[in-house]
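Hi C.,

You asked whether I'd gotten around to modeling the 125-residue construct. I have! Everything is below, sequence then structure, no commentary in between.
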Amino acid sequence: MIGTSLVEPFETLRELEDLYEKYVHNTTERRFVIEEIATGSSVGVLSLIEIDEINRKCEIDIIIDEKFQGRSFGKQGFVLGVKYAFDILNLYKIYLLLLPNNTPGLNIYKFSGFKKECRLRKEFY
């Protein structure tokens, strides 16, 4: 049997610089690192993606590291992300996709005033 690696190839420094240049002025997304104030530890990421300035809408998502879940980082980060989208980006609508079994996320989104608009069948493989 021939040995194989299941690791994605590494980018060269030049490739990483090109990616940075490509996205540094991208107006269709904003990504924020969520940190614990006391320790400065990164606990998650909040993203505003597919920002549509003409129709004033975007998709939002948040990911919190498992070891920091259940400590209100998701709720606080989400509320700040929504506030940023409405107050700073002047958006009219924010939407998200949610897996049916994501109860903690559902609670945060309901708390933030989100309402279910539709059910996407077979959206995730």
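If it helps when you're writing up: DSSP finds three helices and four strands in the chain.

Thanks,
B.
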